[in-house]
Design goal:
The complex is a heterodimer of chains A (421) and B (466). Chain A is mainly α and 421 residues long. Chain A has 3 domains: 1-61; 62-181, no CATH class; 200-417, Orthogonal Bundle (MetI-like fold). Chain A is built from 17 helices and 3 strands. The chains are: A mainly alpha (421), B mainly alpha (466). At the A-B interface, helix 1, helix 9, helix 10, helix 11 and helix 12 of A face helix 5, helix 7, helix 8, helix 9 and helix 12 of B.
Amino acid sequence: MNNVVIAPTPTDWNGDVMQRRIARRYAAERRFKAMGFFSVALSTLFLAFLLFTMLGQGLRGFQRTEVAVEFDFPTLTAGTTAASIMGPNADAALNSMDIPGLVELAVGQQYAGLEDGLLTSAAAANVRQMLADNPDLITSKQTLWLPADTRLDVAFKRSSEPAAEKTVAALSQKDALRTGFNWTFLTGADATDPSSVGIWAAFKGSLMTMAITLLLAFPIGVLSALYLEEYASKNRLTDIIEVSINNLAAVPSIIFGLLGLAVFLTMFGMPRSSALVGGLTLALMTMPVIVIAGRNAVKSVPPSIREAALGIGASPVQVVFHHVLPLALPGILTGTIIGMARALGETAPLLMIGMRAFIPAAPQGFSDAATALPVQIYLWSDEVNQGFVEKTSAAIIVLLIFLLGMNALAIYLRNRFETRW
Amino acid sequence: MVKFMTGTALLFLVLGLGLVGWMSGRARAAAFVRIAKGGPRGTVNSLPYYHGWFVAICAIAPALAFMFVWQAISPSLVTNMVLSAPAAADLPQETFARAAILSEARAIAQGFHTTAFQEGSEKLVSLYRNALSYYQWIGVAATLSLLFAGGAFAFTRIKPDFRARGKVERVVMFGLLVASLIAILTTLGIFASLIFESWRFFAMVSPFEFLFGTDWNPKSTVTPGAYNGYGAIPLFWGTIFIGAIIAMIVAIPLGLMSAIFLTQYASANVRKWMKPILEILAGVPTVVYGYFAALTVAPAIRDFAVMLGVSNAASDNALAAGIVMGVMIIPLVSSMSDDSIAAVPNAMRDGSLAMGATKSETIKQVLLPAALPGVVGGVLLAVSRAIGETMIVVMAAGYTANLTANPFDTISTVTVQIVALLTGDQDFASPHTLAAFALGLALFVTTFFLNYVALRVVKKYREAYE
């Protein structure tokens, strides 16, 4: 046997084959990088598209179309004086004036042939409010701007059915249409007529629900986090608690709704569709989020702090409540805000416990029937009337402003107070 | 209203008195400290505020416990008192009518309602009012006497050598333990309520029909032995099709590639801005996604399908819901992939680059295979999230359960049907309501299993590199 040594031929890096191969590999590299860039860009574009669609439709929801209606009050009301609708008897005097009739009369005189579907049903209430605010109006001829009917509103803002278009054209010629800020939308409640709906009732319901959620989920979450991270010995019970919390954090939200329905409503007989039950249900959902964030925050406090406190004679409870908790608090708060933002945007569990009812007035107490902002969005999105489209988007804008604000606050807190040990 | 307000008022009163107890306890202990200052060191065992807490806890805890119990038992005591009155003797014997009259009289007495509709409820109102105020006063008196007894007991115990801190700390530890047990209690509550209601459902409809039937068209009255339209296979299929197939086709490539681009290619500046922007996608509420899917995406997809020549394209098609859900999941997949790629030891990456591999070759042949368990765990979590998602499918997918693989057709999911079944009447004797709980149980078990496996996989993988 001869030992034949085969001298390896050195790779010809500048040869045609190798150059092609390298070019191919570099092309693959560029393609891969471009795919990555494309993914990020596509996700961002989708977000931008979503936000712009909502903004484009929603901004119109904050506006309303108003029609100029001339009221010749001295003739219409047969010389009612300003003094008679002031003072303590103002309500009764205004009630006896038949304002809806007046409005109908004035509109009939001025817009003969167009009066059907000109003003929203709430227009008379608007006139009443104006007179109550400024009784002197009644002594002279006045031009009042009153909210237009939904069909007209939609037609003025963008094209729609021909009949309404024609009215818009006729009114525009007389300069009798304008766009005003829709205060009713911020102060009102749900209604059947989209031109008189508002989000205040739903927003108040959300605030009350969130108050209950925070009141329950925050203390329970923080205390569990402290227990699990600082005191719990490694045993069966601790394992079960950990599995429960990790699992609860990933349970679909609708399951919490079923729990609320079966336990809070049916077993305990708590009031249906109330902020109390909504808050309890969302608290159970938010608590695990706070526990997990809290545990991470507590874990990141270095052991030297604990050892120093123990070393100068603090008891284990003092170590945690005087030293570890204050240092972990920014992290816990960040997690809490994120959890609360999630609860604020949550809809499905609230549907289960009946917060989908038609609520025409803001709730006064925690056991009153209430609805929440996301549920209101869902309810409006189901409406057939075209006027609700922009109201839904407008409500979404309000919800998004709050959610993004909360998330921004969480990020700010994290950056501002995060300590790298 | 009346009752609830007094409950709140009583709660505030109890807490206020607790504060008084705290202050008096602390003041008394502080006096000891002042005396002790003159004497030998260390005669006072605990700091004054521990004495304060001791008094406050002794005063409040029994009172609150009593209030809680009283809240539960007083309604039946009130009802018994009303029923034992002679005016209640001519109530109808039939349970349902009787309960309706009683509950209305009670609601009027409490101020929830103003007018009576049920015959005979009006004359019970004053009886109820009396009974309510009678037991309410008993409750208030008992609560306050418990509070004062507890407070006084604690106050007399305060001595210089009293170990207040030890006692308070034991209560604190107990409170911590109770807080952690609430998680177990919630899990048990979910499990028990789902199992219990499903049990009642399966007493009416056979589990065989539910699990293997291929037609979902639930009847509100069930005939034993016959097929009642409770076959959930189309729903299970719809859930998997939308959540685990369409959504994942969108979310896995986009999420994974975004994570790779942001961690491996993008400059620090780009990463700083793009990561929070991607996270916003996860922060948008699902009802907004649902509205967007129903109003913008679904019509566009239907038009596209019609253009392709698909004749039966529905406006509530599965594709729109799936795509939008996929977009919602992108940040979840992305952050899980990010974590698992970051956990791969740098030596592996450096080794590959040193051998002359390009960046993309390193990622594809070294980093991704090494990070695969973590990525798979992340995908499992994403699937569990997607199949439990409700609002997007409720608003964008349909209510008609179809067993089809055509993404342009209407397909319903488990969560949609839970919402549909519980809309309106929530009578716990109706198979509709109970079926919702059976669907909920199926959903809960599936997501529990997916989460458990996912967390195990991720944990195992982390340990392998530590």
